[in-house]
Amino acid sequence: MPQFERIAIFTGNAHPALARGIAQQVGRPLGEMVVRQFRDGETQVEIKDDVRGTDVFLIQPTSPSVNQNLMELLVMIDAARRASAGRITAVIPYYGYARQEKKTYGREPISAKLVANLLTVAGADRILTLDLSAPAIEGFFDIPMDHLSAVPLLVRHVMKMHLPDIVVVAPDVGAVRRADRFQQVMGGKPLAILFKDRPKPDEVSVQGMVGEVQGKCALLVDDLISTGNTLIAAAELLLAQGAERVLAVATHGVFAEGAIERLHASPIERVVITDSIPLPSQTPGVEVVSVAPMLGEVINRIHYGISVSDLIRDLV
Ligand code: R5P
Predict the structure, then answer these.
(1) C-alpha distances in angstroms, 270 versus 166, 211, 235?
(2) What is the pLDDT of residues 60-91, one digit of tens each?
(3) Fewer CB within 10 Å: N-end or C-end of the chain?
(4) Which domains are delineated in the chain?
């Protein structure tokens, strides 16, 4: 018996297509909620359905436009709380500001923590998210968080390509755990690690490598692609080190302006991404794996109080 008799799923304006896919998986229609902007730019939300005592799931990646989408989510949470929702879960397939999870220089904010505070103060009871850039962000919340990974879904997709002689490559030290998990889920593959430096924001230089890539099919594994500079610089180094071919997989396709074109023109043969973020209409050379079935299944499990960890184990 679920703790809350009723369940309702709503979407903001960030990614309605993903929300529809998730709702379909859950087997419920999307709830009616108006999320719009006043002429002065302020966000206005109105929940049309009765949510009193309901298990409410609000789907909104805080992807670009990050501030707008984050504000929408906060106002949606506030509206649900004031409408006496029984429980509010913020489903954030992409957690914006996750790359600002620590101070690198003096006098910097820790914006990922600020976002966690904002979500909690607004009234979220739970968070459901996917492949955080920095897993330590989980500790920024004192409410339950289900932190999922798209790695099993991406591995399944890659397995279907039947690539020979794979070496899994972490494009920087921060990506090592994810790349290692990827190779384990693949059933054990060699691992290589690159050393990346950022001389300036959005600029990348790859300084060196540990591992053997000579004559191999190098599979770069990262959490997100923004400018694409990390993957392109990594691919160039891997080819210079003798890799036969280079492919790349990542969970979040942030794709800053020009990134798709740069990746398409780069030596990277194929790029695989999920739909955690809405993708541009034209994405030549990019293959998309949907996270909607997994998120829908997890929402059902949260609602019915069934283990989420068991599902993750089953996916692997
Ligand atoms: C950390 O740096 C991340 O894991 C990604 O490697 C990075 O954010 C990708 O950004 P870009 O595509 O702009 O190099």
Answers:
(1) 14, 22, 12
(2) 999 999 999 999 999 999 999 999 999 999 99
(3) N
(4) 7-149+292-315 (3.40.50.2020), 151-289 (3.40.50.2020)
